[in-house]
Amino acid sequence: MVLYHGSNMIVEQPRLIPQIRFLDFGKGFYTTENKVQAISFADKVYRRRKEGVPTVSIYEFDEKAAFAACSLLRFDSADEDWLDFVSANRNGTYQGKTYELIYGAVANDDIFATFTLYAGGELTKEETINRLKVKKLYNQLVFASEHALSYLKFTGTLDGKE
């Protein structure tokens, strides 16, 4: 499997770093199978940090070996379990089991308004999930342990504007 990571720099040696924001799947190294999504994220990171250059790092990932060796939480759709997990992580309140790999949909900018309405209590869980069903949700695979990161092999970069 080919994975991409968008940033403002080349990331040859992925590592876990302290995070200053609450993200969908908690602390970890975020990747995607979607090149377009990674390019968009590289541009966002560059604009936010105002340094470096939009860059997409590319990795080869042996998912069969990693999924067998690492603890995995997998969401095959943006369902109630996914919504609960993402909401708790974004609020900084997740207290459940930790996993080395987490795979599922991205709660990206395209669905931010829906998520905000849900978090503010203006939408029920069912209404939120129904709204998400009509959105095109991209995937993400988060590496949440050094052990999981050992399965990523850097293969090169794309220009973030490609």
In short:
The chain is an alpha+beta fold and 162 residues long.
Please describe what this structure looks like.
This protein is an alpha+beta fold. It has helices at 35-49, 63-69, 80-91, 112-119, 125-133, 146-149; strands at residues 2-7, 29-31, 55-61, 72-74, 101-105, 139-143, 152-159. Helix 4 (112-119) packs antiparallel against helix 5. It is globular, with a radius of gyration of 16 Å.
Number of helices: 6
Reading side by side through the largest sheet, how are the strands ordered?
2-6-5-4
What is the overall shape? globular
Task: Count every beta strand, where a strand is a DSSP E run of 2 or more residues.
Answer: 7
| Classification by helices and strands | alpha+beta
Q: Catalogue the unreliable spans.
A: none
> Rounded to an integer, what's the Rg over CA atoms?
16 Å
Please report which band the strand proportion falls in: under 5%, 5-15%, 15-25%, 25-35%, 35-45% or over 45%: 15-25%
Helix/strand layout:
Blueprint (H helix, E strand, L loop, with lengths): L1 E6 L21 E3 L3 H15 L5 E7 L1 H7 L2 E3 L5 H12 L9 E5 L6 H8 L5 H9 L5 E5 L2 H4 L2 E8 L3
Parallel strand pairs: 4-5
Antiparallel strand pairs: 1-3, 2-6, 3-7, 5-6
Helix pairs in contact: 4-5
